[in-house]
Amino acid sequence: MSTPIISAENLNVYYGSIQALKGITFHVNKGEIVSLIGANGAGKTTTLRALSGLVPAQGKIELHGKDLTTVPTHQRVTLGIAQSPEGRGVFPQMSVQENLEMGAYHRSDKAEIKKDYDMCLGLFPRIKERLWQMAGTLSGGEQQMLAICRALMCKPEILLLDEPSLGLAPLIVNQIFEIVTKLNQDGMTILLVEQNARLALRISHRAYVLETGRVVMQDTGINLLNNDEVRKAYLGV
After folding, report:
1. Model-level pTM greater than 0.90?
2. Are 38 and 217 in contact (CB under 8 A)?
3. In this predicted model, what pLDDT tens digit does every residue of 128-153 receive, in sequence order?
4. Contact 24/34 with Cβ under 8 angstroms?
5. Chosen CATH of 6-80+156-235 out of 3.40.50.300, 3.10.180.10, 2.60.120.590, 2.60.120.40
6. What's the first-to-final CA gap in the chain, in angstroms?
């Protein structure tokens, strides 16, 4: 089996005396959508933040077999990890155009930057219509689209999506998940954290269920979608 794009082994994260992650192990292979599902406080966002280097972690994190555990955040971006954060995190006093440029700040391959820029605007025509609008004045759905575009401008090997449906109308959520699926079909590897477990599992090749900082179950998306225990706990049926 080929080396996973990203993997974590015995990952532990502490916030002071609180242990948020308790020895979790998982991996994401090239071309997959893998979801992390679980209740609030299960450790899903902390897992993404640990992979990005935004919180200190014990254990091992590897990208293409390279140990990232002590690599600083900005170098992880350069190596191929990009995150669209929970709450979107756009730069509100910058234009949409400037936010996109910030995504590519570490790149010098102008022709490829232009190619990725055109790809983003093709995927998200509403962003194209608002290039010179201040990001802070966009709707929640438009800010989510911008956050994903900004991450794509990093030219990632793996895209970390944290709660892309949070606070959005169902119609916008469906549009965003359709685009996430298309990105994957075009070759993007995605690690998805999502409260809407039903939507996440429908589009995921595999998924991990987290409870209080531990992986308690893993399987294909479709198997977890049809698992009685998962259905009762997370799908409301």
Report:
1. yes
2. no
3. 999 999 999 999 889 999 999 999 99
4. no
5. 3.40.50.300
6. 36
